[in-house]
Amino acid sequence: MHPQSLILRKDQERRLLAGHCWIYSNEIDTKLTPLKGLQPGQPVEILSASERWIGHGYANPHSLICARVVSRERAHPLSPALWLARLHEALDLRERLYTSPFYRLVFGESDGLPGLIVDRYGDRLAVQITTAGMERACAEILAALEQVLRPRAIVLRNDTAVRELEGLEQAVTWALGQPEDDWILTEHGLEFAIDPIRGQKTGWFFDQAENRARLARYGVGERVLDVFSYVGAWGLRAAALGASEVTCVDASVDALERLRTNAERNGLGARVRTLQGDAFEVLRELRDQGQRFDTVLLDPPAFIKRRKDEQDGTAAYRRLNRLGLELLEPGGLLVTSSCSFHLGRDAFQRVVQQAGHSARRRLQVLEIGQQGPDHPLHPAIQEMAYLKTLFVRALHSP
């Protein structure tokens, strides 16, 4: 048998034939194809136990997900030509969707490039590589990006903890251009400066852009509370929609300083104030002061990063939403999100309903949003569908 083939155990190919692309180490016939002989990121051909050809991919013997399928066409192995073709497909979709070049250009498995994230900020790119297979192809990927987009700068934001699962080091490096403190993007007519080196994710949360657009439909009222505000994407959107007072809460001093700069940049400084501190503590203080808001925006980080965090994380979501609801005027709007994959949409809705019961509010769910179309869903990989955003009207319980 060719040394670069991976043979699955009997009946382990069904999920892959249905479209999934992850292969776990316990699905490999390690007697026929020992994993220990493979290098991290090494290209492989995946075959069923009956030696049916399934696809080209790459392997990492040190990871629980020990291989990923990248190409299902035998004539198209992992190569610079494949990377170019996939990037052109990804770009075609985004150019159909967006008039301005600010979006997630590549979303891993959903764009046929597992382990690769590319965010586009005009003529600048932030690239994140999360697997050994993509790390091995990094030079080819960067060359393809330069050929397709001709960017003036590329930063490698390889500082995510998930790289540890693949045995990869964490670092931020400049692959093209000079280090810069600020990159500028536009969203819904507003201009934001973000930090491409130290900012969360790659500096911005493109996945919520569609949901932020939806705020216009519901109206935000006079007083708005934006919790986990980061650099102001939600809060400044609310101010631009007519709110006279937007209170932005975040634990990061640096994020709030950047938020204030962004508010001034858009002529909204007089409408925006910031509160630095732990979100739960600040919410309790505002409640005890008798503060009330017409709209409360809750966009926290993932409280459930691993399945073992599920109980504590679910309780945190319930507590956060109860506090948010207690600060709403009757008939007010709660926009609440979860980016925890392990808390599904129905479960998240139940959590919000439980929070409403505890806060003595009768709730109406008006709409449920998800990540935008620059974060397309892979229909066979439920893990890609992580974001839930509920637009909720909160009334006094009778």
Describe the structure in your own words.
- The structure is a single chain.
- The chain is an alpha/beta fold.
- It has helices at 14-17, 80-97, 132-136, 138-149, 209-218, 233-240, 253-265, 279-288, 310-326, 345-358, and strands at 5-7, 22-24, 42-47, 53-59, 65-71, 102-107, 116-121, 124-129, 153-158, 171-176, 183-187, 190-194, 223-227, 245-250, 272-276, 293-298, 328-338, 361-369, 388-396.
- It has 3 domains: 5-71, Archaeosine Trna-guanine Transglycosylase, Chain: A, domain 4 (Roll); 80-180, Transcription Regulator spoIIAA (2-Layer Sandwich), CATH 3.30.750; 184-396, Vaccinia Virus protein VP39 (Rossmann fold, 3-Layer(aba) Sandwich), CATH 3.40.50.150.
- Helix content is 28%, strand content 29%.
- It has a 7-stranded mixed β-sheet, sandwiched between helices. Strands 1-3-4-5-2 form a 5-stranded mixed β-sheet. Strands 6-7-8-9-10 form a 5-stranded mixed β-sheet.
- A hairpin with a 2-residue loop joins strand 7 (116-121) and strand 8 (124-129).
- Helix 5 (209-218) packs parallel to helix 6 and helix 8 runs parallel beside helix 9.
- The N and C termini lie far apart (72 Å).
Total number of beta strands: 19
| Termini Cα gap | 72 Å
CATH homologous superfamily caption of the largest domain: Vaccinia Virus protein VP39
Helix and strand element order: EHEEEEHEEEHHEEEEHEHEHEHEHEHEE
Report the CATH topology name of the largest domain. Answer: Rossmann fold
Report the mean per-residue pLDDT as an integer.
Answer: 96
Radius of gyration: 23 Å
Range of strand content: 25-35%
The percentage helix is 25-40%
Global morphology: globular
CATH class of the largest domain, named Alpha Beta
Tally of DSSP helical segments: 10
Tally of domains: 3
In what order do the strands lie side by side in the largest sheet? Answer: 15-14-13-16-17-19-18
pLDDT < 50 stretches = none
The SS-based structural class is alpha/beta
Main β-sheet description: 7 strands, mixed
CATH architecture of the largest domain: 3-Layer(aba) Sandwich
Keywords: Cytoplasm, Methyltransferase, rRNA processing, S-adenosyl-L-methionine, Transferase
Protein name: Methyltransferase domain-containing protein
Domain RlmI-like PUA: 6-72
GO molecular function, one term: methyltransferase activity
